[in-house]
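Supplementary Note 3. Input sequence used for the single-chain structure prediction.
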Amino acid sequence: MFGHPQSQHAAQIHAEERAQLLKQLPPLSNQALVPFVSAVVASDELVSAYLMPLRSAPQDKDEGGPTALSQCLAAMERARRCRTLVLKSSWEPVAVALLVNPCGYYLCLRELMLGRKIESPLDMYQRISRVREKVLSQPLQALRDSDAQTGRYLACLLGLGSYEGLDVRRAVEMQRAVYRETLWMS
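The predicted structure, written as discrete structure tokens, is reproduced below.
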């Protein structure tokens, strides 16, 4: 009737981890981005992947072992200081893209760390792409439905949309910021 105590406990832990992850994100003034981020991190596995320690990332002396989330937050902070992103309306989609763009990579990395075997590097690359698209497709469509302009910019930043209907110069500046910070994270 009330569910298995272990499953209730696991659900509570996942809810606490999700709340911890969302609490660490910078506040977003564009309210259309908030449900998008919440929908992306709705998966317990993705939350675990973002909070799992990364063994090969450089460590900060003040923090514990780095996590996928800490790497994303650092990239978001660097992007915030980017001189070409002077408008908050440009910075926020860039920040969200930096958070969600590597979701497929981190989910697949979590699987590898938990013992999943891969056939080849190409197989892994294709899996990362498929997982990323699966995680992002529905939340991105919901964002497009609620705020078409922000949805188009974010889709473009994630490589899942075109420049159609966008200020191309602004979109390219935003893409440069995402690309520059994504390269630093890898």
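The mean pLDDT is 85. The two ends are 47 Å apart (CA to CA).
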